[in-house]
Specification:
The chain is mainly β. Helix content is 11%, strand content 50%. It has a domain at 52-158: Distorted Sandwich (Coagulation Factor XIII, Chain A, domain 1), CATH 2.70.50.
C-alpha cells in the first residue's frame, strides 16, 4: 500500500470513528435559584396588660376625678372616709374594700364594698364609709382587693 492510500484509509477510519462516536450528554441544567425565603411573620401584638392596682389612698375628701384630694392618717368621729383605687390595664376585674376596726390585736369587720370594673386603661374607683352617729375612737384599716387578692392595706385612725 502506498502512502497516499494509507493516509486516505486512516482518514476514513478517523471519520468513521468520529461518526460513530456518541454525542456528549448535554450539560446539566443550571440549578434553579433558591426560592426567596418568605418574609418573617410580623410579631404578634402584645397581649393587653391585665388590670392591676397602681395605687390606693385614703382621705376625707375626693374630687370629681375620684382621686383623694385630702389625704391624712387620722379623722374625726363623724368624717366620711374615702378610698381611691387607681388601676391600670384592660379587662374585667372586681375591686373590693374591706373596712375593719382594729382593737387589741383583733380585727372587727365594719363594711365590705365590691365593684366590678370594665377597664380600658388607667382609671380610678372610689369607695367610702360614714357613720352619722360617730365612729368609735381607735385604729382602723381598709384592705383593697383585686379579684379577691389583697393588694394593699391602708391604716388610719379616728381621734
Amino acid at each position: 500500500m502506498n502512502a497516499t492510500t494509507r493516509i486516505l484509509a486512516l482518514a476514513f477510519v478517523a471519520v468513521g470513528l468520529a461518526a460513530c462516536k456518541k454525542e456528549a450528554p448535554p450539560p446539566p441544567a443550571p440549578a434553579p435559584a433558591p426560592a426567596p425565603a418568605p418574609a418573617p411573620a410580623p410579631a404578634p401584638a402584645p397581649a393587653p396588660a391585665p388590670v392591676s392596682v397602681s395605687a390606693a389612698k385614703v382621705g376625707d375628701a375626693i374630687g370629681l376625678d375620684k382621686k383623694i384630694s385630702s389625704e391624712k392618717p387620722a379623722y374625726g368621729k363623724k368624717d366620711t372616709i374615702y378610698v381611691s383605687v387607681a388601676t391600670a390595664g384592660t379587662g374585667t376585674a372586681t375591686l373590693k374594700a374591706k373596712w375593719t376596726f382594729v382593737s387589741g390585736g383583733k380585727s372587727v369587720p365594719v363594711k365590705e364594698d365590691s365593684q366590678t370594673i370594665q377597664a380600658t386603661g388607667p382609671s380610678d374607683t372610689e369607695f367610702h364609709i360614714s357613720k352619722p352617729d360617730g365612729w368609735p375612737m381607735g385604729d382602723y384599716q381598709v384592705e383593697v382587693l383585686l379579684n379577691d387578692k389583697v393588694v394593699q392595706t391602708l391604716k388610719y385612725s379616728i381621734k
